[in-house]
Amino acid sequence: MTILFIIIILAIFAIFIGVYNRLIRMIEAVNNNERQIDIQLDRRYKVFESLIEVVKKYMDYEQTTLKDVVALRNQAQSAKASGDDAARIAAENGISKIASGINLVFEQYPDLKANQNALQLQEEIVSTENKLAYSKQALNDSIERYNAEKKSFFQAMIVSLCSSKLDKQFVYWNLGGADKIAEKESYTVKL
Amino acid sequence: MADTQPSTDWRDVIARNRRRTYFVMATFVALYMALGFIIDILYQSPLVHAQLLQHNINEPAPLVTAKLLLTGKLFPYATVSAGVVAFIAILITLTFNNRIMLMGTSYRLITPESAQNLAETQLYNAVEEMKIAAGLQFMPKVYVIDADYMNAFASGLNEKSAMIAVTKGLLEKLDRDEVQAVVAHELSHIRHQDTRLILTVSVLTNLMLLIIDVLFYNLIFSRDRRGNQGIIVVIILLRYLLPLITALLALYLSRKRELMADAGAVELTRQNEPLARALIKINDAHSQNPELHQQAYQQTAHDELRQAAYIYSPKTAGISSRPGFSSLWSTHPSLQQRLKAIGYKG
């Protein structure tokens, strides 16, 4: 009888350790994915600076765009410093919107599209925005996996036992605005 | 095998792939040693037969030989050397993995600096983007193969040797989204660690064949043919027997791996149309010009190495890459199955 009791205790202990370790791994994965977004945001800012330098020769409209980007970037940086995730996400999403605007401008200028350097630069913006979107997607996926694990039955009891270590509140990043969704809905297959 | 109860989570696939890679190696060594054992019996039983006749024992000589070999009273030369050869083959596979997979093609490593045109920059960027989406901690090497047919494959044993190769034809005929979908498919193979299993199976089934082919052609074109009659017979036998035997290794390849990689690509890019369009374009190109493609594949030396790894198997369009040699079983699902599995209604 006592042996059975000991076995049950040991089993519960083993499950506890297993769940604890898995949750810690998931939290670290989320943290890592957050760093990845920071890297991509920094990279994007640098790409933007050089991009606007090039496009400036073609359009005077870019002077204000540059100011907008710098202003939004500053907003994002100060929001990050004060720990306000929502404001930071809003500011960075504002820059994304400008980026898709620049891509639209590209489509309107035929001689821009014929310019090899401009095409390389356009690829640079597309790829930069993609990298940012995919790093957000990876972050959201890891948050989803963590939240699902955390809130499942049994795991939730363990989380409440050591909530300081295991209970984190992560904010989902918004994957593009409403215009992106509309763009996907109106998408047609070109063959 | 585990295929009857397939898991839909690629994290379980990793464990299964790792297990199967070891099984493939063990099967490979076992097959070779079995072959060696048969040679031992054939070679040594005449001697045993003579001995038995001398002592007036009426027992079948091959059986007695087998018994003597197993109990260690006769030394199984062929079995041991076959085992050693198999072991060396595995070592070669592990050492030269990617170079063997790219063998026979002319290929170029793509980096941001070495990209020669927009398409190559886009290819490299697509790999980088998918790497981020998959949360991989390492960047696979990117190669462009100088060939006109449209195909792609991934390979590699581990993080250091992970690679994705795309043909020039594919890069020229697909748009950015489609290239990205193909890259996502290949990256899923890497993430699922299919590459390790496919690499092991592909190289081990073909490596000995490569060596025997070299010997075979050496013999055919060598002038001095006197005295090697026995060796010629053995080499010709092995040339046609070994592919049959080692084709058994292909049984370890799950038919589901391509579907899983397609699903992985949709999971990473969050859309199925580009992948569907890419698959349809690749399929159309192959089935509209079967002769041209057959020629192109056959002119690429050692293409059978890459057959199991390709995103699109030319066999799906009835194109065989090796004249007179068709694989015993298909390794890829049909286009319709694949489109249906990713939920594409064209």
CATH architecture of chain A: Up-down Bundle
Question: Which sequence of SSEs, written as H and E, runs from N to C of chain B?
Answer: HHHEHEEEHHHHHHHH
User: Could you say which overall geometry of chain B the principal axes of the C-alpha atoms support?
Assistant: elongated
The count of helical stretches of chain A stands at: 8
Short description:
The complex is a heterodimer of chains A (191) and B (346). Chain A contains eight helices and no strands. Chain A is mostly helical and 191 residues long.
Describe this structure in words.
- The complex is a heterodimer of chains A (191) and B (346).
- Chain A is mostly helical and 191 residues long.
- Chain A has one domain (2-185): LemA-like domain (de novo design (two linked rop proteins), Up-down Bundle).
- Chain A is built from eight helices and no strands.
- The N and C termini of chain A lie far apart (72 Å).
- Chain B has 346 residues and is mainly alpha-helical.
- Chain B has a domain at 107-195 and 254-341: 2-Layer Sandwich (Zincin-like), CATH 3.30.2010.
- In chain B, 61% of the residues lie in helices and 5% in strands.
- In chain B, strands 1-2-4-3 form a four-stranded mixed beta sheet, sandwiched between helices.
- In chain B, a hairpin with a 7-residue loop joins strand 3 (152-155) and strand 4.
- In chain B, helix 1 packs across helix 2 and helix 4 packs across helix 6.
- Chain B is elongated.
- The A-B interface holds A 29, 32-33, 36, 40, 116, 119-120, 123, 126-127, 130-131, 134-135, 137-138, 141-142, 184, 187, 189, 191 and B 118, 121-122, 125-126, 128-130, 132-135, 176, 268, 270-271, 273, 277, 280, 346.
